[in-house]
Amino acid sequence: LRFVVVKNDGLDRSLISLIDMKSIYSKQLPKMGKEYIVRLVLDRSHTSLACVFEGEIVGGVTYRRHATQAFAEIAFCAVSATHQVRGYGTRLMNQLKEHCKREGIHFLLTYADNHAIGYFRKQGFQKQVTMKRERWLGYIKDYDGGTLMECAIDTQVDYLN
Ligand code: ACO
């Protein structure tokens, strides 16, 4: 299993990877509009982390970094149906935490789908947001139908060990 950071830098191979991730997100998150997913995945202020198995993208997470506020918002996170429950989702989140830690991010926020709350809990997210409201309010879009969850990133922890 490999993990690759992908951004819309205009290169063909980056765009192909982002479109592959978009397809997984729209299949796994059918309630989210396809146009909305494409827009955010291709948006240059978003970063994606692709999970690659035998040369094929089988999952990913797309997030937006708010550098001045030292937090990142996860927009989408999914693993393709045939590759779920093999621990890839956990490894993906650990990679994201380690990557964010190195980028000076101290918190992750996400609006979790109700059926994904259990997954995020297992990844160390909680419903109680400990960041001060003014630090995140206005930086992330309000999205009803999801539960806002937070995960603190500990600079002392090696998330890949
Ligand atoms: N509810 C409760 N527990 C779950 C769920 C769930 N929906 N999904 C996985 N878990 C558990 C697993 O049983 C496992 O527990 P264990 O460690 O005790 O064995 C643990 O969480 C991690 O499982 P993984 O195999 O690492 O996760 P997986 O590779 O299956 O990926 C994911 C999890 C990403 C949620 C996947 O199921 C998926 O793509 N679901 C559909 C899309 C989705 O709901 N994405 C999140 C939406 S919210 C957002 O994107 C902001």
Protein model, in words:
This protein is of the alpha+beta class. The chain has one domain (2-152): Gcn5-related N-acetyltransferase (GNAT) (Aminopeptidase). It is built from 5 helices and 6 strands, in the order E-H-H-E-E-E-H-E-H-H-E. A 6-stranded mixed β-sheet has the order 1-2-3-4-5-6, sandwiched between helices. The radius of gyration is 15 Å and the shape is globular. The two termini are 15 Å apart. The model has no long low-confidence stretch (mean pLDDT 96). The structure holds acetyl coenzyme *A. The site of acetyl coenzyme *A has 23 residues, from strand 4, helix 3, strand 5 and helix 4.
Using brief descriptors, characterize the structure shown:
single chain; 161 residues; alpha+beta; Aminopeptidase; six-stranded mixed β-sheet; 5 helices; binds acetyl coenzyme *A
> Which sheet architecture does the biggest sheet show?
6 strands, mixed
Oligomer: single chain
Classification by helices and strands: alpha+beta
Beta-strand residue percentage: 25-35%
Shape: globular
Helical content, roughly? 25-40%
Summarize the structure.
The protein has 161 residues and is α+β, with helices and mostly antiparallel strands. 32% of the residues lie in helices and 29% in strands.
Protein topology:
Blueprint (H helix, E strand, L loop, with lengths): L1 E5 L5 H17 L5 H9 L3 E8 L2 E11 L4 E9 L8 H15 L4 E7 L3 H6 L10 H4 L9 E7 L9
Parallel strand pairs: 4-5
Antiparallel strand pairs: 1-2, 2-3, 3-4, 5-6
